[in-house]
Amino acid sequence: MTRRIHVIGIGAGDPDHVTAQAVAALNDTQVFFVMDKGSPKDDLVALRRLICQRFIREPGYRFVELPDPPRVREASDGPAYRQAVADWHAARARVWADAIEAELPDGGTGAFLAWGDPSLYDSTLRILDTVASHVDIDYDVIPGITAIQALTARHRIPLNDVGEPVLITTGRQLRDRGLTGSAVVMLDADCSFLTCPPDTGIWWGAYLGTPDELLMSGTVGEVGEEIARVRADARARHGWIMDTYLLRSATGGA
Questions:
Q1: What one-character DSSP code corresponds to residue 27?
Q2: Which GO terms describe its biological process (predicted)?
Q3: 151-185: b (≥16 Cβ within 10 Å) or e
Q4: DSSP 159-185
Q5: Distance between CA 218 and CA 180 in Å, rounded?
């Protein structure tokens, strides 16, 4: 019988971000698969457990922690980057396929809990597509609150200028292409906002929705260096960081 998998978006860090649809899927799950990324990120697994404890009415479920395959770190602007990511995803798919076959009975229901929304800069769906070519599974996707939504809500700002588009991009793309209008930047370990003109508006947030949340805003000239310093200190203290920011060029509309 076909095994069923829920991919559940669990929000940016606050358990209150979990939707009613996600709660229903949590209560429909027998086995939760989570990636073990090492001791610095143990609190990411702990928060997943906390969400299950809070919302699952009859705790008969199991957690299966999977070793995260090593990833070859290539410069994101180098020619080997995409191949390194593809190799890492393929290795993850093998680990997931083996675990699903070993830990989830035929006809059973498992789940992966995705930070934010599974559709936005998350590899879960791509990897499950590969798993489905080797294991008999069917999966659905429950959307979640994104870091972008949490960021703009905490700063109490609209995402876009009136009638204007918003780009969602990465730090590498920002460095390569520059900024026009408004852009949300994710996956930026290099503080690429520092390459923007000093009068560029920035709204930054890290660990959104958690007790460790950090927020800063102003112009790049006013707060850019301070954001970089605070970010580095927080990453050193926690061993990891998840942050995002909204940029708005000074020529944007109101």
A1: T
A2: cobalamin biosynthetic process; methylation
A3: bbebbeeeebeeeeebeebebbbbbeeebebbbbb
A4: SS-TT--EEEEEHHHHHHH---SEEEE
A5: 18
Q: Are 238 and 206 in contact (CB under 8 A)?
A: no
Query: What's the confidence (pLDDT) of residue 74?
Result: 59
Other Cβ atoms closer than 10 A to 126: 13
Tens digits of residue pLDDT in 68-123: 888 776 565 566 778 888 898 999 999 999 999 999 999 999 999 999 999 998 99
H/E segment holding residue 239: none
For the segment 10-16, the average pLDDT, to the nearest whole number, is: 93
Type of residue at 254: A
Output helix, strand, coil percentages for the chain, rounded to the nearest 5: 40, 25, 35
Q: Which of 195, 173, 170, 200 is nearest to 185 (CA)?
A: 170
Q: Which alpha helices (DSSP H) does the chain contain, by range?
A: 20-26, 42-55, 81-103, 124-132, 147-155, 171-177, 220-238
What are the C-alpha distances in Å from 68 to residues 23, 134, 137, 199?
Answer: 26, 19, 21, 41
Query: Cα-atom radius of gyration of the chain, to the nearest Å?
Result: 19
Helix (H) or strand (E) holding 205: strand 201-206
Contact 131, 26 (CB under 8 A): no
Q: How far apart are CA 248 and CA 139, in angstroms?
A: 38
- The pLDDT tens digits for 174-197 are 999 999 999 999 999 999 999 999
